[in-house]
């Protein structure tokens, strides 16, 4: 599908205010309950062999950006393992079908990454079942924007956000790095929130700023081993996390404040991950953050 058609399809999924119909789910949210359904590149992404024979682990790979990245990686020639919460099994199985449809191996790894032992098991199982690992995508994330003040953030919420976004990234990366060799790469999922934080996402934005710092520091540590570390910073992207964590009135205007005037689709973020993970296209790219924000600055 020509790029102009892809853009038109994305624009047709939003309303005149740049947002979406009012809707809400309980976390973590499911793709099947969203209206309209996100575009993960199922009908639009065309691979060109840029990751042929590679093996990748994607956290949060069941839906949203993670699903789009899984589909893109598979169509670029990679075998893919995805981790996800057990309650997201239906979404994970749908992602699995798309990976298999691309002719690649798909490994499902359910489990809550807020638990250190689970993180390390996910890493080890991915290595075992894929026969090694070349790419780690730390994509799993959690936010809650239904409360807006410092006083509203409970210890339980803070713990969930930081363990999902930061602790899990540390633990899983620690588990995987010993299995990575020269030419391998790590791609973390940061956010525009690291640069332009929303007051209602104080805890989440803090973790995303930390991910940027983690990315740059780890790139410095692993460079001598020939392992590249980068991050993608998405702007407002239409994923299950939005109706599961945002007030309904914000959903109606979601993404409308970007220069492009709309939210992005997961399929529009996945190519950034492909570029950074590609050992040929991004062979000299490490310690950088690539923004996919609809025009909002990432610096």
Topology summary:
Layout: H1 3-12, E1 55-59, H2 64-75, E2 79-84, H3 89-101, E3 106-110, H4 116-130, E4 135-138, H5 155-176, E5 185-189, H6 202-222, E6 228-234, H7 241-245, H8 248-251, H9 266-277, E7 289-292
Parallel strand pairs: 1-2, 1-4, 2-3, 4-5, 5-6, 6-7
Helix pairs in contact: 2-3, 2-9, 4-5, 5-6
Overview of the structural elements:
- There is one protein chain.
- The chain is α/β, with parallel strands linked by helices and 299 residues long.
- The model has no long low-confidence stretch (mean pLDDT 91).
- Strand 1 (55-59), helix 2 and strand 2 form a beta-alpha-beta unit.
- The chain has a 7-stranded parallel beta sheet, sandwiched between helices.
- The protein has 9 helices and 7 strands; from the N terminus they run αβαβαβαβαβαβαααβ.
Count the beta strands. 7
**Main β-sheet, in a few words?**
7 strands, parallel
Q: Which of globular, elongated, flat, extended, rod-shaped describes the shape?
A: globular
How would you write the strand order of the largest sheet? Answer: 3-2-1-4-5-6-7
Q: Total helix count?
A: 9
β-strand percent reads: 5-15%
Uncertain regions: pLDDT < 50 for 5+ in a row?
Answer: none
Q: What is the string of SSEs from the N terminus onward?
A: HEHEHEHEHEHEHHHE
Radius of gyration, taken over Cα atoms and rounded to an integer in Å: 18 Å
Q: Helix/strand/pairing class, anyone?
A: alpha/beta
Notable characteristics:
299 residues, seven-stranded parallel beta sheet, 7 strands, 12% strand
Compact overview of the structure:
With 299 residues, this protein is of the alpha/beta class. It has 9 helices and 7 strands. 38% of the residues lie in helices and 12% in strands.
